[in-house]
């Protein structure tokens, strides 16, 4: 249990430290000038584990300490709703599992949980491996010709195709480029709106609003077509979409309307491919930057697999591959911030949290907190020993969130990512194209700004 729950007395508890701001707008211009990512890091270094910001009309608290994060996500979670960030996210996902709350969320989670349980997830292994192999046929040609790829775009396409096949029995290879572009556009614009402090109306004919409208039209057209096609031919399907269409409210007996099915499908598509794709992009970047780690990975893959494609049964025999994945998610968690809204007043670390304000537990900061991580900015997969992990306090490492609203698909995502890493790393070496400046960009997910370009080299046997 957290020790951060003293009686609340807003007259006695202090206001959290904050950087200098301007009248009315507070820290909004400084955040926009520096970028939220760098502004977050600068404030954490200067002001500590709890930082108060005024973003126009919004009071925001940034949390870096694991105990403070646990207080919000677990110990006093009843006081913290999804907050403004998730209200903006509804532009993309509607009332899906990510954004819904209360009894409705509990019902939807019970409905969507079965395909993502640890017992069921291994069943997807053969289809994941098959999809990876088919996808990489394009890379063979690129490797021969010496062309370069955008690793981020490629991982988005790959994870989208894997999700389409495993969750919806749908071959998205022909549609992957359009869908990836539409998701990338929508995620970037919605992410900017979340952090803008003030929203322009969606109907305003700004360039960003027009791009968002086109992207959502593309996504909606494809998703509604998928739903309608399945309704016409419902037989012999047992996938997630079939479960959504066949679900009945236990009290009313009513099925979900098409719009709600759309929201859940959109949520699964977004959450199920975007975060894993960004994580894999960071994996390839870090391996390219750390040849000794890459060599250790190759030694493990050669010893265990000997050149054959990995299967789910092989994953427990690939501990170093797993450590690379976890160290990547520590340094670059796709879910870098977890916005919440305070329903009532609270006190965290001796600081007053007013009702109606926003709090941002920051996995990115917690994962680099020097009190819990030795040499926190270094890429060291070796740190992921069982003994070391056992010493970590709650919420010191939370790439999938924590508490009752932790990511429903975390077991699926870990299995998928490990199969992708083991397959690609055996076949190719991804070399960074010279002259790139790789900068983390914090939108809804943490992604390399402008992508990462690699040259694909065939890996020689042995």
List the helices and strands and how they pair.
Layout: H1 28-34, H2 36-47, E1 50-55, E2 58-63, H3 66-75, E3 80-81, H4 83-93, H5 102-112, H6 125-145, E4 148-150, H7 151-168, H8 176-195, H9 207-232, H10 240-246, H11 258-289, H12 291-305, H13 319-331, E5 340-342, E6 346-348, E7 351-353, E8 358-361, H14 363-366, H15 386-391, H16 410-427, E9 428-432, E10 440-442, E11 446-448, E12 453-458
Parallel strand pairs: 2-8
Antiparallel strand pairs: 1-2, 3-5, 4-12, 5-8, 6-7, 9-12, 10-11
Helix pairs in contact: 1-2, 4-8, 6-7, 6-16, 7-8, 7-11, 8-9, 9-11, 11-13, 11-16
Describe the structure.
This protein has 462 residues and is of the alpha+beta class. The chain has a single domain, classed as Orthogonal Bundle (Cytochrome p450). It is 50% helix and 10% strand. The protein contains 16 helices and twelve strands. It has helices spanning 28-34, 36-47, 66-75, 83-93, 102-112, 125-145, 151-168, 176-195, 207-232, 240-246, 258-289, 291-305, 319-331, 363-366, 386-391, 410-427; strands at residues 50-55, 58-63, 80-81, 148-150, 340-342, 346-348, 351-353, 358-361, 428-432, 440-442, 446-448, 453-458. A five-stranded mixed β-sheet has the order 1-2-8-5-3, sandwiched between helices. A hairpin with a 2-residue loop joins strand 1 (50-55) and strand 2. The longest helix is centred in the middle third of the chain and has 32 residues, at 258-289. The termini are far apart. Mean pLDDT is 90; it is low at 1-8.
């Amino acid at each position: 249990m957290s020790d951060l729950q003293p009686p609340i007395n807003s007259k006695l508890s202090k206001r959290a430290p904050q950087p200098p701001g301007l009248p009315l707008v507070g820290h909004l211009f400084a955040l926009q000038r520096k970028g939220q990512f760098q502004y977050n890091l600068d404030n954490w270094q200067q002001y500590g584990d709890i930082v108060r910001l005024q973003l126009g009309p919004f009071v925001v608290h940034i949390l870096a300490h694991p105990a403070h994060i646990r207080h919000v996500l677990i110990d006093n979670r009843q006081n913290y709703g999804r907050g403004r960030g998730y209200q903006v996210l509804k532009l993309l996902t509607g009332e899906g599992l990510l954004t819904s709350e209360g009894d409705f969320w509990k019902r939807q989670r019970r409905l969507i949980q079965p395909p993502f349980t640890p017992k069921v997830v291994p069943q997807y292994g053969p289809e994941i491996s098959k999809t990876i192999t088919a996808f990489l046929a394009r890379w063979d040609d690129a490797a021969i010709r010496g062309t370069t790829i955008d690793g981020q775009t490629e991982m988005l396409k790959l994870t989208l195709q894997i999700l389409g096949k495993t969750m919806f029995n749908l071959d998205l290879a022909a549609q992957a480029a359009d869908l990836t572009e539409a998701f990338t556009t929508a995620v970037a614009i919605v992410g900017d709106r979340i952090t803008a402090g003030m929203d322009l109306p969606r109907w305003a004919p700004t360039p960003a609003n027009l791009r968002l409208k086109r992207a959502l039209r593309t996504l909606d057209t494809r998703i509604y077509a998928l739903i309608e096609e399945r309704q016409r031919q419902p037989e012999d399907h047992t996938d997630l979409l079939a479960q959504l269409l066949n679900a009945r409210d236990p009290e009313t007996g009513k099925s979900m309307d098409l719009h709600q099915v759309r929201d859940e499908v959109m949520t699964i598509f977004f959450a199920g491919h975007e975060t894993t794709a960004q994580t894999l992009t960071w994996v390839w970047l870090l391996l390219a930057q750390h040849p000794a780690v890459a060599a250790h990975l190759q030694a493990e893959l050669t010893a265990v697999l000997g050149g054959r494609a990995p299967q789910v049964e092989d994953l427990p025999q690939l501990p170093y591959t797993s450590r690379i994945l976890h160290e990547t998610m520590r340094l670059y968690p796709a879910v870098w911030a977890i916005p919440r809204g305070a329903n009532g007043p609270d006190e965290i670390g001796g600081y007053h949290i007013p009702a109606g304000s926003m709090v941002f537990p920051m996995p990115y900061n917690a994962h680099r907190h020097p009190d819990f991580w030795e040499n926190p900015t270094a890429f060291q997969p070796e740190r992921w020993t069982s003994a070391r992990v056992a010493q970590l306090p709650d919420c010191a490492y939370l790439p999938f969130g924590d508490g009752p609203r932790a990511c429903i698909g975390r077991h699926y995502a870990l299995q998928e990512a490990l199969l992708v890493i083991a397959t690609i790393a055996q076949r190719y070496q991804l070399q960074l194209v010279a002259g790139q400046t790789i900068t983390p960009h914090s939108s809804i997910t943490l992604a390399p700004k402008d992508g990462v370009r690699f040259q694909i080299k065939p890996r020689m046997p042995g």
